[in-house]
Design brief:
Blueprint: H1 16-29, H2 32-48, H3 51-73, H4 75-78, H5 84-91, H6 126-133, H7 142-149, H8 156-172, H9 174-179, H10 182-209, H11 228-252, H12 259-289
Helix pairs in contact: 1-3, 2-3, 2-6, 2-8, 3-10, 6-8, 10-11, 10-12, 11-12
Length: 292
């Protein structure tokens, strides 16, 4: 199920940008079987307090997330940003959208106005699985509330799985066990960095495919377009910053990193520090543009 072996059967706008947009997502999801298997491996290793098995599972998890991110990066070549707005018309929601302040009445269905969020990458289960496995926390604010609201739009089986991952991960203390050893902590941090990269790529796509082409301040799913994705990104970057400090303290106390993990640690640390500065500047500029 790679991109070149996929075809779009049901179309909305019918353009090439639509096919590319949808099929890149399908090609990404084709790699989630390994994600599910490795999620289980990480939790079981933490349950058994088996450091060797944990590191092996985290390394495989990292490789799989890298693959998914590489497929996501092909969006630029598969779907022309200049044509995305033609597709976006069909997937816009009606919840929290200023053009539908009273919702929409569906004739023959209900006399009461209904509101639904539009299609969004937040409906997918790839990153929520990571959030729950690695026990990532986000600020308590309206943006995080929207993130949780999207969960209602997933299949029930996905929601059951995500809740189970969160419960099992916290019960096995995956985060605590991983961060208690500097080499495991670096592998854990590198996985969170892939979550950061995924969310940053989503943010970059949003800027190029949507923000560049419209002054409408609300995203497809009904979230504030300039602050919603940065909210999650900032939460991830803050966690990474704290984890970097923890690893540096462990190393300064005499706990050594392997040469491979030392190089990986330096690479991840440099990227996260630079991105937090860039993100803060971008959001400030865009809030002025959208008068938010």
């Amino acid at each position: 199920m790679d991109y070149d072996n996929l075809g779009l059967i049901r179309r909305l706008h019918g353009g090439a940008a639509e096919s590319g947009f949808i099929l890149v997502h399908v090609a990404m999801v084709a790699h989630t079987g390994n994600q599910v298997r490795n999620t289980d491996r990480v939790i079981k290793a933490a349950e058994k307090k088996n450091r060797q098995e944990l590191d092996a599972a985290l390394a495989d998890y990292l490789d799989n997330l890298r693959t998914i991110n590489r497929v996501m990066d092909s969006m630029w070549a598969r779907s022309d940003p200049n044509d995305y707005m033609k597709l976006r018309t069909f997937i816009m929601g009606t919840k929290d959208q200023p053009m539908f302040p009273k919702g929409v009445i569906y004739e023959g269905v209900s006399e009461q106005p209904q509101t639904y969020r539009g299609e969004s990458g937040a409906n997918d289960s790839i990153i929520p699985t990571c959030d729950n496995l690695f026990d990532l926390n986000f600020p308590s604010n309206p943006m995080t509330g929207i993130l949780l609201d999207f969960r209602q739009y997933r299949p029930n089986t996905h929601e059951v799985f995500l809740n189970e991952v969160k419960s099992r991960s916290q019960g096995a203390k995956v985060k605590e066990f991983s961060l208690s050893d500097p080499n495991s902590a670096v592998l854990f941090l590198a996985n969170v960095d892939m979550v950061r990269e995924f969310r940053m790529r989503h943010w970059n796509l949003t800027k190029e495919y949507i923000i560049r082409h419209t002054d409408h301040p609300v995203a497809t799913g009904g979230s504030p377009i300039t602050t919603w994705l940065p909210n999650q990104l900032t939460g991830v970057l803050t966690f990474m910053e704290n984890t970097v400090q923890s690893i540096e303290k462990q190393v300064s106390n005499g706990q050594a990193l392997t040469s491979e993990n030392s190089a990986l640690f330096d690479y991840v640390k440099a990227r996260s520090n630079a991105q937090l500065r860039i993100l803060t500047r971008e959001v400030a500029e865009l809030r002025k543009k959208f008068n938010q």
